[in-house]
Each structure stands twice: as C-alpha cells, then as structure tokens.
Design goal:
Length: 347
C-alpha cells in the first residue's frame, strides 16, 4: 500500500471545487447549500467553483467522475469540498482515472458516502479529509459550531498537529431544510457525556482508516478498495454510522465481517464516532437516543472482544454524522494517548 502524503493546502483567495460526487441534493435543497457557499466565501476567504453535476440530482456515475477529473486536473483549483453524501458513490469509482488523480493531488473534503472516494484516494497515496461538507457543516443553521469551525479551518489551511477535544454539547435532532425558518437559529444542543475509553493503557500513533460503517459494508461486499489486512497493521481505525440508524446487530455483523477478514486485529486503536440516534423516520426521544447509542456501543465491544480484545477504543468522538463534527485526516496520522486521555490528528 502506498504511504499517503498530504497534498498542498489552499490559502484564502484560492479557488476550490464544490462537487456532488455522491448526490446532487443542492438541486432540491438549496438553502443549506447556498448558506454553506456564503460561509466559504465570507468566513474562509475561498472562491467556490461549481461544476455541471454540483446541483444536478440523478447525474450518472460517469458524469460525476468527469467533474472530479476536471477539478483535479485544473491547476487553479486548490481543494475539493463535497456538497453532501449520498448512497451510490461506489458506482463512480470504476470511472476514475487513477493516474490523472495521482498526478494532481488535492485536499478532498467529505464524509458519509464520500468514504468511497476517501479510501480510493488513500490507496493512491493521497491523504483526504473525512468531514466538512458544504450543506451539513458549512451550511449549519444559525452558525457553524465553534468546534466544527476550528477543526475545518485547521484542516483546510494548516499542516500541523491539531488536538481534538470532546464537545460538552451535542445534537442530532434536525429541522426541515426546505423551511427557511430552520436557518434563522442554531440547533438546540443538549449536554454530551464526553469520550468513553476502553483498554486505555497505551499510546498508539498510526494512519487513520475507516469511515462510515454502512459504506464500508458496501465496499466489503463488492471487494472494492479494501487492501490485504496486514497492510493496515498499526493504524488507527475510525468508524461512524449515518442517519439511516443501523441497528446494533447490523453494526456488529459488519464488524464481525471485518474481523473474519482479519482487519479488526490490525488496528491497535479505534475511534468510534458519537452515534447519530435520531432521524425523521425514527424520531427517538432522549431516552430512546441513549438506548440506541448504548446498544451500538455494546455491539462494537462485542466484536472487539471476539476479534481484537487488546484494541484500545474511544467512544463518542465527535466525528461523522454528528453535530459538532471534527475532521479526521484519512490516511493521515492520528495519535491516541490512552493514559492521558488525549487524541491528536495531523492535518
């Protein structure tokens, strides 16, 4: 496996591509998208550049791949920021020109279904950034959360170490993006319990690998982009689940499959994102959300006990489908210090 390298970072005033390689939801949900674009301009000093499929729902895999190629090939584009996730990005991967992308590395920001591209880039030797999409983080109602803003800014513009800190508050109860009133105030937050540690008796430093559990399941089933297990030895696994709210047994089965493949035991440390526990289809109350998170935590610990009993794990890290959200450098260095209860990433 190629050792990933960090692409050069953009600077204020630079042009950045805004793409929808997973789903063109800006076409039908313009309010968070336009807000996110304004913040990229007004708060980050960047110049967003849209492409033919950025606001086109239902674009083919080949058309989305063409936009990716155009953005990577353009020397004036200094980074790529995704609009949002989706559910079929795995179909885009066969259309990609690996040599073109490898020859023109750029920071790529996205999460959820963009796990596909982040893994693809990592296999090409390019560090990507799991997090900070236009509609979800930059387009957050009211204001960006300070923790998200600091992490996104550091990931976009800096190249050094960034220490993660647990958020004292969280929220996953959404309001309708079709309603303009949604964007007049920030989400109502509730207290968060901080990180929860397991086997926290060592310090682990390694390359980050993982992403959205449901997307990893697709890649495992398709046998796509997953390298031989021993190539991940010593890395830091990070996992999170989406607004689809997979059940605890489903999460366990995905991790069991990773265990049977020999993957889980390769990672001496795991960062588990704070589980999203509410959706419009499953509007759990506070007690229901806590039960859901507890069930998922138990499922992960069950899989670790069976396949990687010595792995250190940190639960409820603010990564993935959660608010606030920190950015994880995919393929980049992460240090997990169990005795000190600290996590640092290198952007």
């Amino acid at each position: 496996m190629t050792e990933p390298a960090y692409p050069a970072k953009p600077r204020p005033g630079d042009r950045v591509a805004v793409l929808s390689p997973a789903s063109g939801l800006p076409e039908v949900l313009p309010l968070p998208f336009e807000l996110g674009l304004r913040r990229l301009v007004e708060e980050y000093g960047l110049v967003p550049v849209e492409y033919p499929t950025t606001r086109r729902l239902g674009a083919t895999a080949g058309e989305r791949a063409a936009d990716l190629h155009a953005a990577f090939a353009d020397p004036q584009i200094k980074a790529i920021v995704t609009s949002i996730g989706g559910d079929d990005q795995i179909t885009v991967l066969p259309h990609l020109d690996a040599e073109l992308i490898r020859a023109n590395p750029k920071p790529f920001f996205g999460f959820s279904d963009n796990t596909n591209l982040l893994m693809y880039l990592s296999n090409l030797g390019i560090v990507g950034y799991h997090g900070a999409s236009v509609m979800t983080q930059f387009g957050r109602p009211g204001a960006m959360h300070p923790l998200t803003e600091a992490s996104a800014r550091a990931a976009l513009f800096t190249s050094g170490e960034f220490e993660l800190t647990p958020s004292p508050e969280t929220n996953d109860v959404e309001r309708r993006w079709e309603d303009p009133e949604t964007f007049e105030s920030a989400p109502v937050m509730e207290p968060a319990g901080g990180w929860s540690w397991h086997n926290a008796d060592r310090v682990v430093e390694g390359a980050a690998w993982g992403g959205c559990v449901e997307v990893l399941a697709q890649l495992l089933m398709a046998d796509r982009e997953i390298r031989p297990a021993d190539e991940y030895a010593g890395g830091v696994l990070f996992l999170e689940t989406s607004e689809m709210l997979p059940g605890a047994e489903e999460v366990y089965r995905v991790l069991r499959s990773m265990g049977e493949r020999g993957l889980l035991r390769q990672f001496p440390a795991l960062l588990m994102g704070r589980a999203r526990a509410w959706s419009f289809d499953k509007p759990n109350d506070a007690a229901g959300r806590e039960r859901y998170r507890a069930g998922q935590r138990a499922a992960v610990l069950r899989a670790l006990a069976e396949y990687a009993p010595d792995t250190m794990a940190v639960f409820d890290v603010d990564l993935g489908h959660t608010d606030p959200q920190v950015v994880i450098p995919y393929g980049g260095l992460v240090r997990v210090d169990g005795p000190a209860r600290r996590i640092a990433v290198v952007y």
